[in-house]
Amino acid sequence: MKAPTNAALRLLTYAAITISAVSITWLAAKNRIEAQRTAAFLSTFRDISPTLDADDAFRASREAVTIAGSPGERYTVKDGSTYYRSHTDKGYNGNITLLIGIAPDQRTLLGVRVLEHKETPGLGDKIDTRISPWIHTFAGKSLDNSRLAVKKDGGDIDSFTGATITPRAVTNQVNTVLHAVRDGTIASPPPSERKETP
């Protein structure tokens, strides 16, 4: 009787020590991981506007909004420029999350960056600035000076060789956000529906 009981106690002790060690490691790394995520997110804003003071006060300006029926976020800068975190599920492999900067005139794009995507390496991943400068195409464009659609759809934006779905998804979403800003149709959801996002 003693041998099985001792073995069970040893196993229980080992499990408790292992769980404690993993928990302590996770708790110790959690704050560092969150700080790195925040720094990476803020650096994307600075990539669009190098002079932007993207600090905690700027992050506090975040408000949940609805853009063409989909949830998003708006960040407002003192100079009147705005940044929208928006997504489209029209990518080749699903969801693409964008950060769209709009100048104080609320008509001209400061720039666009991709925050998240699962597009095909070697084709759709050219929306990522680490792979291709294609996304820089949007800086300075507006509804007044450009047709924000890919050339295959009669617009001014080039696609990638061998891929149209991904650039079409990004371009159409940028177009949707700019139209919503121009037309004043971006809405803030009721307080009961607002959710905190990282």
From TrEMBL:
Membrane topology: Single-pass membrane protein
Top enzyme category: translocase
Keyword Flavoprotein part of the UniProt annotation: yes
Domain FMN-binding: 91-181
Subcellular location: Cell inner membrane
GO cellular-component term (any): plasma membrane
Pfam families for this protein: FMN_bind (PF04205)
Molecular function via GO: electron transfer activity; FMN binding
Cofactor: FMN
Keyword Transit peptide in record: no
NCBIfam families documented for this protein: rnfG
Description of how the protein assembles with itself and partners: The complex is composed of six subunits: RnfA, RnfB, RnfC, RnfD, RnfE and RnfG.
Protein name from the UniProt record: Ion-translocating oxidoreductase complex subunit G
Organism: Cardiobacterium valvarum
Highest classification ranks of the organism: Bacteria, Pseudomonadati, Pseudomonadota, Gammaproteobacteria, Cardiobacteriales
Name of encoding gene: rnfG
